[in-house]
TrEMBL record, chain A:
This is Uncharacterized protein. The chain crosses the membrane at residues 31-50. Keywords: Membrane, Transmembrane, Transmembrane helix.
Automatic annotation (TrEMBL), chain B:
Keywords: Germination, Membrane, Transmembrane, Transmembrane helix, Transport. NCBIfam families: 2A0309 (TIGR00912). GO terms for biological process: spore germination. Pfam families: Spore_permease. The keyword Transport applies. It is found in: Membrane. It is a multi-pass membrane protein. It comes from Lysinibacillus macroides. The chain crosses the membrane at residues 12-33, 39-60, 80-107, 119-137, 146-166, 186-206, 218-240, 273-295, 307-327, 339-358. Belongs to the amino acid-polyamine-organocation (APC) superfamily. Spore germination protein (SGP) (TC 2.A.3.9) family. The keyword Zinc-finger does not apply. This is Variant surface antigen E.
């Protein structure tokens, strides 16, 4: 719980440090990308801090590539 | 943003340390698992085959001398398909960064500090990586230059210290491995050692100032890295024996634990761990830098520095979820990663070369008209 709050505070600090600076330089696109990435990162870290069971993104890749793997394995046997 | 330049010597050093990377820790186990005592032959063949991959990458780099790999994708395949392939490439690099951070955490936790959570190591390491990415590639190249002599000094010291324990019975009988197991071993070796070299194409054509000597440096770097790895695999088999090597997660660390000279100079494995931390740092940085710069280039952002912090937070989170346990890690690295890296890091450059060869005559005709 404390870790989750720490992550929220950290991301708020990062946002407050960076976004006004970027707005001054008039880089709207960077601000949008920055905010999206920060949101994903913070959400992920809060999930980890609260010990929510997040499935590994590699499982998706494993699921896609398993047929190819099985084909190659059957080929060599 | 001013253009950053590195020298060809710095590029060679980055190639050496990058190709050694994680391989130095996990390759002995993963290839000895299949080829048993002939794993060193597989490693040797793997190094020779890697030179072909370097040749492929250099040919691709010649096609687009003013672009990075991500920009070359867009240029050659067009806006739509180029974006799709780039996204696949970037997903691979981002996930690999997370994996490497996980790897650092699990290595430190299992071998050095068993009661510290892996998050702590991942956090500290990601801060270094983010800082290095913020300072840029020039500073990073200089830091690699400083770390390189230290790395080799420790490596030579390591080889000399472990040499008295070699028993040649371990490597016999030779040439017993079946063709299939040999093939698997070579594929695993290549997938960790030389397929990811394509990441260096983000540096090679545009940020290196002397073009000609760099090509030689690329070959040299791969060969030296390969020699280091083959030495490591051979030593693991000679000292620990093939079964013992295959059973361990970090065989080269176990190798360092065996060092004992006159019952006096022993338990120096943490000093040896400097080697692994150096190469892991170089490899993690390269993946992270390429993900950040690639993302900035694909979204047409001028400066990549602002997105370093959120990306760092993201890979820190990723490092905690990519592998729930070490078995998942082993399965993924031995079975899925070779296929994934072959598709993204070998087939993609080949595709780019073919498309470039088809499109080039057309564009020349257009110019003539």
């Amino acid at each position: 719980m404390i870790l989750a709050i720490a992550f929220v505070l950290l991301s708020i600090i990062i946002a407050f440090l960076m976004i006004p600076k970027l707005k001054k330089q008039q880089e709207t696109k960077t601000v949008v990308v920055f905010s999206i990435l920060l949101l994903i990162g913070t959400a992920l870290n809060i999930g980890i801090a609260l010990k929510i069971n997040i499935p590994s993104p590699l499982d998706v890749i494993t699921f896609i590539l398993t047929p190819i793997k099985e084909y190659i394995v059957s080929f060599t046997k | 943003m001013e253009k950053e330049m590195i020298s060809s010597r710095q590029f060679t050093i980055i190639t050496i340390l990058y190709s050694i990377g994680t391989a130095i820790l996990i390759i002995p186990a993963s290839i000895t698992n299949m080829a048993k005592q002939d794993a060193w032959i597989a490693a040797g063949i793997g190094v020779i085959l890697s030179l072909l991959i370097v040749k492929l990458l250099l040919t691709l780099a010649k096609q687009t001398p003013t672009l990075t790999f991500v920009e070359a994708n867009k240029q050659i395949l067009g806006r739509f398909f180029g974006t799709i392939t780039t996204i696949c490439f970037l997903i691979t690099t981002i996930l690999s960064t997370g994996e490497l951070l996980y790897f650092i955490g699990i290595f430190m936790q299992t071998e050095v500090m068993p009661e510290t959570p892996t998050m702590a190591f991942a956090l500290l390491f990601s801060i270094i990586i983010m800082y290095a990415a913020y300072l840029g590639i020039e500073t990073f190249a200089r830091s690699a230059e400083i770390l390189f002599p230290l790395f080799f000094l420790i490596f030579i010291f390591f080889v000399i210290c472990i040499a008295p324990q070699i028993t040649f019975d371990n490597i016999q009988p030779m040439l017993e491995a079946t063709k299939a197991s040999m093939l698997y071993s070579i594929t695993r070796f290549l997938s960790i050692f030389s397929f990811p070299l394509v990441v260096l194409l983000m540096l090679y054509p545009i940020t290196v100032n002397v073009q000609h000597s760099v090509q030689k440096g690329f070959y040299m770097g791969t060969i030296i890295g390969g020699i280091v790895l083959t030495t490591m695999v051979t030593l693991c088999i000679l000292v620990l024996g093939p079964d013992n090597t295959a059973a361990r997660t970090f065989p080269s660390y176990a190798l360092a634990q065996r060092i004992s000279i006159g019952n006096f100079l022993q338990r120096i494995e943490v000093i040896m761990a400097f080697m692994w931390l150096t190469t892991l740092y170089i490899r993690t940085f390269m993946y992270f830098y390429v993900s950040v710069v690639g993302l900035a280039q694909i979204l047409n952002i001028k400066d990549h520095r602002p997105i370093i912090l959120p990306m760092g937070l993201m890979i820190l989170g990723l490092s905690q979820i990519v592998h729930p346990n070490i078995i998942h890690f082993n399965n993924y690295n031995n079975e899925i990663w070779p296929i994934l890296s072959f598709i993204v890091m070998i087939l993609l450059p080949v595709l780019l070369l073919i498309v470039a060869a088809i499109r080039k005559p057309k564009s020349q005709k257009e110019e003539e008209v």
